[in-house]
């Protein structure tokens, strides 16, 4: 299974970064290049433990739906979301926050498994891991910008 790990340094308090990272409206803004919208479950505001959200977005020229659920939640240092339904065979996205009142290190660990066996593994190697890495990097830049604005 591919694993993507990112570290983002944010000049803002941990609690603010935690809330910005789980804000549905900011998520939509961070993925505007995909046309992503929240269409079911929690569709606005701060997602909480046990809640789901269904996203609709265009990836690789195809409109897709993906439902994820907040499966672990420890305010303000950690939360994880996992795919309930969607194009992946599975995924888990862990969000870690450490720091103080001035700077936060946000660490992402995104683990996914593609469908279609060997063909999926080939897609991971050829383009999917890079695509997902770039998607998360863009999202993290928006989180950083919004958290630093206050």
UniProtKB/TrEMBL annotation:
InterPro entries: START-like_dom_sf. It comes from the Bacteria. SUPFAM superfamilies: Bet v1-like. This is SRPBCC family protein. It comes from Mucilaginibacter aquariorum.
């Amino acid at each position: 299974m591919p694993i993507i790990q990112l570290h983002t340094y944010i000049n803002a308090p941990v609690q603010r970064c935690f809330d910005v990272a789980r804000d549905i409206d900011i998520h939509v803004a961070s993925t505007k290049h995909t046309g992503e919208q929240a269409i079911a479950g929690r569709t606005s505001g701060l997602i909480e433990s046990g809640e789901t959200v269904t996203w609709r977005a265009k990836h690789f020229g195809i409109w897709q739906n993906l439902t994820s659920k907040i499966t672990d939640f420890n305010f303000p240092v950690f939360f994880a979301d996992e795919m309930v339904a969607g194009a992946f065979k599975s995924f888990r996205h862990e969000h870690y926050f450490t720091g103080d009142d001035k700077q936060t290190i946000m660490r992402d660990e995104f683990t996914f498994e593609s469908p279609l066996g060997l063909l999926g593994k080939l897609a991971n190697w050829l383009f999917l891991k890079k695509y997902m890495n770039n998607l998360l990097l863009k999202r993290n830049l928006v989180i950083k910008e919004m958290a630093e604005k206050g």
